[in-house]
Amino acid sequence: MADKNHEMWENLGMDLETHDQLCSVLPTAFGDVFLSQENRPAGMDYFNMVAADIHGLRPAELIDEQKKGRKVFGTFCVFVPDEVIIAADGIVTGLCGGSQFWVPEGEKVLPSNTCPLIKASLGARLGKTCPYFRIADMYVGETTCDGKKKAYEILGEDVPMHIMHLPHGKRPQDMAAWSDEIHLFIKRVEEFTGNTVTLDKLNESIKLINAKRRALERLYNCRKNANVPISGRDTLLIMQIAFFDDPARLTQMVNKLCDELEDRVAKGVSIAPKKAPRILITGTPLAVPNWKMHNIIESSGAVVVCEENCTGTRYFAHEVKEDNKTLDEAVDALTERYLGNIHCACFTPNPGRMDDIVRLAKEYQVDGVIDLNLKFCTLYDTEGRLVERRLKEEGIPCLGLETDYTDNDAEQLRTRVEAFLELLRG
Amino acid sequence: MTAYYILFDSHEQAIRLHGTLHEAGLPTTISPTPRQASVCCGVSLMVPENEIERVRAYLADHSCIYKSVEQVEQEFNARRDIYC
């Protein structure tokens, strides 16, 4: 297995020696965060396997598909409609970097006061230490923040790149502009793959991704119960894997796990101690393998029951209308789902996010909210004031935290989290 | 704490044996292979110390396909705060 992986990584032109340093950290970190838990659902076996060989199994599948003539598209954001790529027989893989390991390489070309997600993403590509970044035939960026926009220009010098220009509002003219962007994207994907996005193909891919959304929503619904059948850590891992795994298989494995979780709920099985404070995390995305805050919160005696972020509810909430009669109608359906329903801090104003946080806090019966943001993310940091104010009005306790991918603030974060949990316990 | 890892040449072998052992009432955990056991990023099966003799006996009796069984001293600690 190891030899096959090394051969594959070598063929991808990866820096094997540096990459090996990342490989050496994974088993212990994974053991500490995930395998240290008691009473995990058996259905986590599949996700353990994917994570255990995260740079081997799925990359090998992607390369096999490329040999058959299929194209792999790397994406960085939940605004990019997977349905379009899949309708052209392409494959989608998420590319956001979530490890400090990649940050120094990114800092060689980016200002140090850029958010760690952007630095890690560039570092993974330019340092040649991530197979997914090597495999993707085309990257698809989007204009959700200034840092990403400029970073994509740098990446575009190294790899074919398509940028989707996301409007920063939700007015009718913004919806029309996003619909135009999706049409342009269809054209670019068709040219790149040599395949036509037909109405039938698009309707088919809409159903495929809606099924994945329903499975993930079912997983989240299990966490609404008083007895929580799965930890926040395990759910986070599943969500992170959802960004790069085969969508049909992922749907099947999540639904299989949910059968077990619903059985646990019926039997009153909980992974959390009685009266453990229930936490909702909101804020910036948690790209793989960023497990720090979930681990700190849950190993401090609380349980994370919901994430209102791009690696949480924003990824699966709201389905795209199915069985569209024309291609334009299908694009309108995509426009409505993506621009109309994803409430990112890049929008101004962005009241939908505040409403979502409050609604989710009630649905998941949370005791407190942690507004968790990556350092140097101006949009979410600034919007944090509005989040805090709205939660105060609603009487929901909130703790704002800012961090990056390094380990050196972990003790300080633990102290703040534990003080917050004490407050929640009364 | 002593743990045991069953190592394989492919993840398919690991999944197959995981299922077989599970059906035989011998639960194992699919896990990344620890560096002490092998320098690779592969999939292995973690066996708790109190089950290893039963697992070894099963492996011997049923001609199971695997690479090796390695003993590892390890302690998982959720408060270690060393991440990837």
Describe the structure.
The complex is a heterodimer of chains A (426) and B (84). In chain A, helix 9 links the parallel strand 3 (138-142) and strand 4 (161-164). Chain A is globular. Chain A has 426 residues and is an alpha/beta fold. The N and C termini of chain A lie far apart (52 Å). The mean pLDDT of chain A is 97. Chain A is built from 19 helices and eight strands. The longest helix of chain A has 24 residues, at 199-222. Chain B is of the alpha+beta class and 84 residues long. Chain B has two helices and four strands; from the N terminus they run E-H-E-E-H-E. The two termini of chain B are 23 Å apart. At the A-B interface, helix 1, helix 2, helix 3, helix 14 and helix 19 of A face helix 1, strand 2 and strand 3 of B.
Tally of domains of chain B: 1
CATH hierarchy class name of chain A: Alpha Beta
Low-confidence segments of chain A, given as residue ranges, are none
Counting structural domains of chain A, the number is 1
Lateral strand order in the biggest sheet of chain B? 2-3-1-4
**DSSP helix count of chain B?**
2
CATH topology of chain A: Rossmann fold
Number of strands of chain A: 8
3D shape of chain A: globular
Order of helices and strands of chain B: EHEEHE
What do the pLDDT scores of chain A average to?
Answer: 97
Greatest chain-chain interface? A-B, 46 and 32 residues
Topology:
The complex is a heterodimer of chains A (426) and B (84).
Chain A: H1 2-11, H2 16-35, H3 45-52, H4 57-67, E1 72-75, H5 82-87, E2 91-94, H6 103-107, H7 116-126, H8 131-135, E3 138-142, H9 146-155, E4 161-164, H10 172-193, H11 199-222, H12 232-242, H13 247-267, E5 278-283, H14 292-298, E6 303-308, H15 313-316, H16 327-341, H17 351-363, E7 368-374, H18 378-394, E8 398-403, H19 410-425
Parallel strand pairs in A: 1-2, 1-3, 3-4, 5-6, 5-7, 7-8
Chain B: E1 2-7, H1 11-23, E2 29-32, E3 43-48, H2 52-61, E4 68-73
